Backbone:
């Protein structure tokens, strides 16, 4: 089961490369780092290394790029930009502090640390995932000079992780809360403002484990914000989205989404944070698309690929949420 969950990283990364390939990403105006020189090049450099290190993952990237479905590209664009915007807003608000830290839990091959580390000199970034994902990512970072330059020179000789002055890529099973706390107590400072990201991660965890993670980490850090992105099953009796998704994943990938039908609405998903956090906001990705994406950007997206399945876009986006919870 852990292996099936770990492999979902290749899906997420493949989708991102497809969205870059079709020019959905980087986004245009919302974020100044969209203009960042080398955004696409750095991702392509990562893919290039992946080719020599993990043929299976590389094959997945190739297939995703070839199929390049507009619905998938829209979804990847939206979740990436929505989380980046929240990250940027948190880091700007925290700019007056001498220190700030980001924990990307279940980071997979996500490379967003590269542009935030470059822009915020006081930032310490912690990426955590299963050992297999971490070891592959560490190997790529160690051998790809362009990426190494941004995350900083290696500070220790570990073959399977990557630690520099400001970047920590460490292996850890998030289900083992004692180990998570032990590791984070060692490499982070509970007094420093902390942003926690779980992008498509909590959905793979059992209910008690994911709730323990939320409760313990919110109690550990004095102040912070948690950004979480996940699918929700839907709470309407006629809504079959969640049950179809569960069956498909179980049959094709032996993957379980244990809480998809438990936290099946925005209200219920928010409640898991409201128990411990001071303020929580949540919206579906459809609401985000309608309210937050400018008309100019919507037109740009429309021009990239032909998309006539707008009802399907609405249906899918209504089953994904972005939550922001602060304490
Ligand atoms: N957050 C990344 C992104 O959105 O690009 C990766 C998302 S991928 C769908 C889910 C990631 O969560 C995988 O890399 C997986 O290994 C990680 N993950 C899920 N459960 C985990 C656990 N218990 N411990 C460590 N990592 C976990």
Residues:
């Amino acid at each position: 089961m852990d292996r099936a969950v770990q492999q979902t990283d290749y899906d997420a990364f493949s989708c991102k490369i497809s969205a870059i390939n079709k020019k959905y990403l980087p986004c245009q105006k919302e974020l100044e780092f969209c203009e960042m020189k080398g955004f696409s090049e750095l991702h392509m450099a990562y893919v290039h290394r992946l080719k020599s290190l993990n043929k299976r993952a590389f094959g997945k990237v190739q297939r995703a790029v070839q199929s390049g479905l507009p619905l998938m590209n829209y979804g990847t664009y939206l979740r990436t930009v929505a989380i980046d915007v929240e990250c940027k807003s948190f880091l700007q608000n925290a700019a007056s502090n001498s220190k700030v830290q980001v924990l990307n839990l279940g980071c997979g091959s996500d490379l967003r640390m590269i542009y935030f580390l470059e822009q915020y000199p006081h930032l310490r970034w912690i990426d955590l995932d299963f050992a297999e994902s971490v070891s592959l990512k560490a190997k790529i970072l160690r051998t790809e000079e362009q990426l190494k330059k941004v995350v900083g020179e290696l500070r220790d000789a570990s073959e399977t992780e990557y630690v520099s002055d400001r970047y920590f890529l460490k292996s850890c099973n998030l289900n083992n809360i004692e180990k998570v706390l032990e590791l984070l107590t060692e490499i982070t400072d509970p007094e420093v403002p902390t942003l926690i990201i779980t992008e498509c991660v909590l959905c793979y965890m059992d209910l008690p484990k994911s709730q323990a993670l939320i409760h313990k980490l919110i109690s550990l850090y004095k102040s912070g914000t948690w950004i979480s992105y996940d699918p929700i099953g839907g709470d309407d009796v006629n809504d079959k989205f969640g049950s179809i998704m569960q069956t498909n994943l179980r049959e094709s990938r032996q993957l379980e989404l244990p809480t998809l039908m438990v936290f099946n609405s925005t209200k219920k998903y928010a409640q898991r944070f409201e128990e411990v956090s001071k303020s929580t906001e949540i919206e579906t990705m459809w609401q985000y698309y309608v309210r937050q994406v400018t008309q100019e950007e919507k037109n740009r997206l429309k021009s990239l690929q032909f998309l006539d399945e707008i009802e399907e876009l609405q249906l899918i986006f209504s089953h994904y949420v972005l939550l922001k919870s602060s304490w």
